[in-house]
Write a structure and sequence with these properties.
The protein is mainly α and 234 residues long. Among the domains are: 94 residues, no CATH class; 60 residues, no CATH class. The chain has seven helices and no strands. The termini are far apart.
């Protein structure tokens, strides 16, 4: 009996595991070309004449080796996938047509991205952006009040991030601004002694000090401190 219960438990556990990992049925796709889909659903608003959103899809070449072109195609893919394009007010493609377009567009993009990763690596070495450079100077110099980021040029952005190595270029202007910001920071934290104060001489006389003249006895014949009479001590 116990063996029978164990067998049933193992069977139930195995079935539950199978049910848990059962993949979802794939979405049906239609053999749709990218150009055909764009002509039917996109060119009405994004051609050379209308250029809505400053996007001309008729001039967009399928060159996935160019970074800017690749980024534009990514936006097109994501907007269609999210159902944002075509807009709700326009005729919508059916689910199989949309899925076919996404597949036809995604496959060469994935292949091009994989080739780029093999060629260049996944990440690009990058410099610090303005905020990171300012925070680094604050830490090194122990001056949390330093404000130097405004002395540096604006950082580039990629996908709304200002920490992408693809957008953070280094030019002679950038280097010169870095040096100027570092010099400014050092001047702010080090005591300034650029101009020495002018030396002045001031004389102090005993007759002008009350500690000495407090016990002087004045009379009608000696009213000046130089001729005053001092009392005898002792």
């Amino acid at each position: 009996m116990k063996r029978r219960f164990k067998s049933i438990a193992i069977l139930v556990l195995g079935l539950s595991t199978v049910w848990a990992v059962r993949p979802k049925p794939p979405v049906a796709t239609a053999a749709v070309s990218v150009q055909q889909f764009l002509e039917t659903n996109c060119f009405a608003c994004h051609d050379s004449r209308t250029k809505k959103g400053n996007l001309d899809l008729t001039a967009l070449k399928p060159d996935f080796t160019d970074a800017q072109t690749f980024a534009t195609w990514v936006k097109v893919h994501d907007r269609v996938q999210a159902g944002e394009m075509p807009p709700k007010s326009m005729p919508q493609p059916d689910a199989t047509t949309r899925a076919g377009f996404l597949k036809a567009l995604a496959e060469p993009m994935i292949a091009a991205d994989a080739a780029r990763i093999r060629r260049e690596g996944r990440a690009v070495l990058r410099r610090m952006n303005r905020y990171e450079y300012e925070n680094t100077l604050r830490d090194i110099l122990g001056a949390p009040w330093l404000q130097v980021k405004e002395l540096l040029p604006e950082d580039g952005e990629r996908y709304r991030f200002n920490k992408s190595g693809e957008a953070l270029g280094v030019s002679h202007v950038q280097i010169s601004r870095y040096l100027a910001a570092a010099e400014y920071a050092l001047r702010e934290v080090i005591a300034r002694a650029e101009k020495q104060p002018e030396a002045t001489t001031k004389r102090y006389y005993a007759r002008e000090q009350r500690a000495f003249t407090a016990h002087i006895e004045f009379s009608q014949f000696n009213t000046h401190t130089e001729r005053a009479t001092f009392p005898l001590i002792g």
